[in-house]
Amino acid sequence: MATHEQLESTSSRPVLDPTLTMQDESSKDVAPSAAFKRKSDEANITADTIHIGTRKSALAVIQAEMVLAELKKAHPETQYEIHAMSTMGDKNQVTALHEFGAKSLWTHELEAQLLEGKLDLIVHCLKDMPTQLPPKCTIGCIMEREDPRDCVIMKKGLEYKTLLELPEGSVVGTSSVRRSAQVKRKYPHLKFKDVRGNVGTRLNKLDAADGEYTCLILAAAGIIRMNWKDRITQYLDSKTVGGGLLHAVGQGALAIEIREGDEKTLNVLAELINEDSTFAGTAERSLMRTLEGGCSVPIGVETTWIEKGKLLMKAIVVSLDGTESVEAERLGEVLNVRDADEFGWELAQDLVKKGAAKILEAINLNRPVIAEGGGA
Ligand SMILES: NCc1[nH]cc(CCC(=O)O)c1CC(=O)O
């Protein structure tokens, strides 16, 4: 159970039926005009203060500050204020994420303030956003993507760099079934152990003298934004030898959530929109939404722009123990958000035809499942 929508209804929704047409609501994930705003649309921006909401973790605050700096560059006449809030998820780090189930616990309080008008926008990692946003909320902007790959960080003092070098029984820290299930397939000699908390907390747990982890697998984007890039010892994408791990949907991209129909804020965001990231992010989210993956199913993706407007997307669905998997890829023209939505949906259908439904159904029957882990 991952999204608001899923919580309300959908256990019996026949989304895995390949004969179904694309769901209508999927096309409004990103505000329709968001990808097409141009500078000339800025005419009615006033000098009011823009209130920026974020979670309170160090990474979340850095990300909000990055957004503020970009906004200031685009609109120096406007005032900006960052409001950092502890969310339910932050306050309850002890309870396993899958006991809460809902990914929304990282965003719910912030969204309430957005809808009340106390905030004008919320800065998120796209990866942490449910594929169905609450009513009246929408994505106003997806920014240029940071490195979307997963990476390995070794415990301080160890001389290993890659997973292949690790001795039998070494312990990989990750709370993501997407990561553990994919890595298990390639490296059956490794052990996996949950690791919780913000990125900084996880690194401290890794380096602790009495620590139990040999290495961690994390998103490179968060590590780079925290200025810890020199701790990365291996990248785990499909193009790197020894990698072979497809990343999470939306990984590496920042997204800005706004109130639906808030043209003023949408205009302020115009310069921050990155078209390639928006289309790739939309396609990835459409795939995930079609498979009803939420954050609780091991779905990996990798999108590459072969040339402008030509997208290659690989995707994998893995069983929780890593023993079964279905892979598919698609190359096609993506020139707008609508194309992107359809592209993701089509690739999801390919996965279903190859047997992904069986893996997903087995996972759904055995809920609750461990979430990707919303604690950036
Ligand atoms: N799971 C939490 C989370 N959400 C976003 C990021 C990284 C930054 C990003 O993807 O933009 C992380 C940390 C991680 O997975 O290592």
UniProtKB/TrEMBL annotation:
<dbReference type="GO" id="GO:0006782">
    <property type="term" value="P:protoporphyrinogen IX biosynthetic process"/>
</dbReference>
<keyword id="KW-0350">Heme biosynthesis</keyword>
<feature type="domain" description="Porphobilinogen deaminase N-terminal">
    <location>
        <begin position="50"/>
        <end position="266"/>
    </location>
</feature>
<comment type="pathway">
    <text>Porphyrin-containing compound metabolism; protoporphyrin-IX biosynthesis; coproporphyrinogen-III from 5-aminolevulinate: step 2/4.</text>
</comment>
<dbReference type="GO" id="GO:0004418">
    <property type="term" value="F:hydroxymethylbilane synthase activity"/>
</dbReference>
<dbReference type="InterPro" id="IPR000860">
    <property type="entry name" value="HemC"/>
</dbReference>
<keyword id="KW-0808">Transferase</keyword>
<dbReference type="InterPro" id="IPR036803">
    <property type="entry name" value="Porphobilinogen_deaminase_C_sf"/>
</dbReference>
<protein>
    <recommendedName>
        <fullName>Porphobilinogen deaminase</fullName>
        <ecNumber>2.5.1.61</ecNumber>
    </recommendedName>
</protein>
<dbReference type="GO" id="GO:0005737">
    <property type="term" value="C:cytoplasm"/>
</dbReference>
<feature type="region of interest" description="Disordered">
    <location>
        <begin position="1"/>
        <end position="35"/>
    </location>
</feature>
<comment type="function">
    <text>Tetrapolymerization of the monopyrrole PBG into the hydroxymethylbilane pre-uroporphyrinogen in several discrete steps.</text>
</comment>
<dbReference type="Pfam" id="PF03900">
    <property type="entry name" value="Porphobil_deamC"/>
</dbReference>
<comment type="similarity">
    <text>Belongs to the HMBS family.</text>
</comment>
<dbReference type="InterPro" id="IPR022417">
    <property type="entry name" value="Porphobilin_deaminase_N"/>
</dbReference>
<feature type="domain" description="Porphobilinogen deaminase C-terminal">
    <location>
        <begin position="282"/>
        <end position="352"/>
    </location>
</feature>
<dbReference type="InterPro" id="IPR022419">
    <property type="entry name" value="Porphobilin_deaminase_cofac_BS"/>
</dbReference>
<dbReference type="Pfam" id="PF01379">
    <property type="entry name" value="Porphobil_deam"/>
</dbReference>
<dbReference type="InterPro" id="IPR022418">
    <property type="entry name" value="Porphobilinogen_deaminase_C"/>
</dbReference>
<keyword id="KW-0627">Porphyrin biosynthesis</keyword>
